[in-house]
Amino acid sequence: MSKNQEKVYGYARVSTREQNEDRQIIALKEVGVPEGNIYLDKFSGKNFERPQYKRLLKRLNSESVLYVKSIDRLERNYRDLSEQWRIITKEKGADMVVIDMPILDTRRDKNLLGTFISDLILALLSYVAETEYRTIHQRQAEGIAAAKARGVKLGRPPKPLPENFDVIYHKWKAGEISTTEASKKVNMPASTFRYRAGLYKKNS
């Protein structure tokens, strides 16, 4: 690895372990980021308590260039994103490059106007990203509420009750056996037994 390559880093993030990071990794390699300098986190974007990101941050300095494929891979929340951008570009003195948005490249126009334009574009894009994220979640919540109002049952259907549930339930209700004993007899965790017992009472 050459000295120039040692200064080039990439960061990729997926929200869950089921999501695929291949597109981000390929994009980072295509712009010249060595595979050994790519840091990947499989965490949601709610905060920066991410182990690989923390490791990456320690390596950045004024001779570093950090690539991300898109701005939301760094963070969705506007305030947190702005703060991390400040830490990377101001405190660490590193350059930032957003592959999908070439205007967000701090190597361009190294003057006051260039910095102002980059910061302004970042503020606008991060605000739009956060607004879009909130809108999606709001629509999801509204859709769930509307479905519930129509009587649609969401989530997985509960497992059938064991054949002995009725007998055990009435013994438990009468105080003949404890919750722990009852849950063992129907092969359920105690919390699940109490929940199913509550539903059973409503439906019986």
CATH topology of the largest domain: Rossmann fold
The unreliable regions are: none
Mean pLDDT: 81
CATH architecture of the largest domain: 3-Layer(aba) Sandwich
Could you state the CATH homologous superfamily of the largest domain? Answer: Resolvase, N-terminal catalytic domain
Short précis:
By secondary structure, this protein is an alpha/beta fold. 53% of the residues lie in helices and 10% in strands. Helix 8 crosses helix 9 (190-203).
Key terms for this structure?
9 helices, alpha/beta, 2 domains, 204 residues, Rossmann fold, single chain
Structure notes:
The chain has 204 residues and is an alpha/beta fold. It has two domains: 3-133, Resolvase, N-terminal catalytic domain (Rossmann fold, 3-Layer(aba) Sandwich); 165-203. It is 53% helix and 10% strand. It is built from nine helices and four strands. It has a four-stranded parallel beta sheet, with helices on both faces. Strand 1, helix 2 and strand 2 (38-42) form a beta-alpha-beta unit. It starts with a helix and ends with a helix. The mean pLDDT is 81.
